[in-house]
Amino acid sequence: MAKQHVNTTINGDPVEFLCEPDQTVLDVLRDVLGLTGSKEGCGTGDCGACSVIVDGRLSCGCLMLGAEAEGREITTVEGIAEGDKLHPVQQRILEEGALQCAFCTPGFVVAAKALIDQNPDPTETEARYWLAGNLCRCTGYDKIIRAVMNAAADVRGEAA
Amino acid sequence: MEYQSPGTVEEAVSLLAGASGTSKVLAGGTDLLVQLRSGFVEPDLVVDLKRIDALTSITEDAGGFRIGAAVSCAELGEHAALSAAWPGIVEAARLIGSEQIQSRSSLGGNLCNASPAADTVPALIAARAVCSVVGPGGQRDIPVEDIVTAPGETSLQPGEIVVSLNLPARPSRSADAYLRFIPRTEMDIAVVGSGVSLTLSEDGTVSDAHVGLGAVAPTALLVSEAGQALVGTSCDDAALDAAAAAASAACDPIDDKRGTVEYRVRVAGVLTKRAAAIAYQRAGSR
């Protein structure tokens, strides 16, 4: 089986990799590139633990072949903070204690960042619908939603 | 497995027609990758259609629309003219999965995956959408309801792909609506889906109406009797009840964990009634 040679951009950096034709973007991130922040929960697009942003759109890394990444721009959870400065979503998740086991957290961080990028002033209902594709089996979501709403206020420059 | 991402329809067709083993086309991949992962399909060749302009663009054509079969549901929702003309199709597309799924899932994929519960298919049937299909024998137009022949089966011949879903020009005072019932608010598969598209004459009565139903038979259904029940009426209670009865009568559902036969038959009528009332209200406000 010939490997696929793929040129892409990940977290702003040009990246070149070889993958099997049936490897997913998630497989490539974790197993080829060592970017293990994205998690595999279900592998079927239900849980959102593998959420990445592809050409500005929130996507499941498990539902996209590595070969499809050719020429695309991918943002993973590793690319959300700016150096040591956490993104407001990350900071607020910490402050709210919006996690227990944290397996879902990278997916929530990426999904919430994508939401705030396109709508910095979401209603709670909008935030809950937007995050319907991210499952958390520990917290019950209220703290996560609180963190996202506060992070959006931070991004707007308002006191939450 | 070999992966190819051709840049033209002709190239895609020739790859598929020349393939010796099992081949699969890849649009958004939200169904195909799950099937690959589970071993449900083991193709020798996967042809990615997302590098082909005709598959990934929406064009307005003589008052209608040609929607590339691989255009994402998110893009459909962002297309102002399409959303205004065909709110029912767009609301059906926007019900599929999560935001993550919306970024990838497509009308062509939703159709050709051939699930009886596909959300966009009843809406496309009600809209009288026509598929532009290209294969080794050339191009042909197929009404959307003739693509799926059984769960997981289509009428597409080897090497054929759905290039676009074409929506006709609409008379003024036309609108559509789609409703789906699921036990939760998001992220589930339709128990029943109903799409209604209609046009009003100047006096406010329905001059043309079509109803599509999903998840109540092995394939999505065009229910002509339900559409006919609305024609010539003002979608009054009697007309809505007649359309509901016709919709229920057309159902041939299965019993499963999502709903019993009796429940699905009943809900198909209720959703058709409600979708017709919404489409009527939308058409009247134009």
Write the layout of secondary structure elements.
The complex is a heterodimer of chains A (about 160) and B (about 290).
Chain A (H helix, E strand, L loop, with lengths): L3 E7 L2 E7 L5 H8 L18 E4 L2 E4 L12 E3 L12 H9 L8 H14 L5 H7 L11 H15 L4
Parallel strand pairs in A: 1-5
Antiparallel strand pairs in A: 1-2, 3-4, 3-5
Helix pairs in contact in A: 2-5
Chain B lengths: L1 E3 L4 H10 L4 E4 L5 H7 L6 E4 L9 E4 L2 E5 L4 H6 L1 H6 L1 H7 L5 H4 L4 H6 L7 H7 L3 E6 L2 E6 L4 E3 L2 E2 L6 E7 L6 E8 L10 E9 L5 E9 L6 E2 L1 H7 L6 H14 L10 H24 L2
Parallel strand pairs in B: 1-3, 2-3
Antiparallel strand pairs in B: 4-5, 5-10, 6-7, 6-10, 8-9, 11-12, 12-13, 13-14
Helix pairs in contact in B: 5-8, 9-10, 10-11
List keywords for this structure.
heterodimer, A: 160 residues, alpha+beta, Ubiquitin-like (UB roll), DNA polymerase, domain 1, 2 domains, 5 strands, 33% helix, 16% strand, globular, B: 286 residues, Uridine Diphospho-n-acetylenolpyruvylglucosamine Reductase, domain 3, Enolase-like, domain 1, 5-stranded antiparallel beta sheet, 4-stranded antiparallel beta sheet, 11 helices, 14 strands, 34% helix, 25% strand
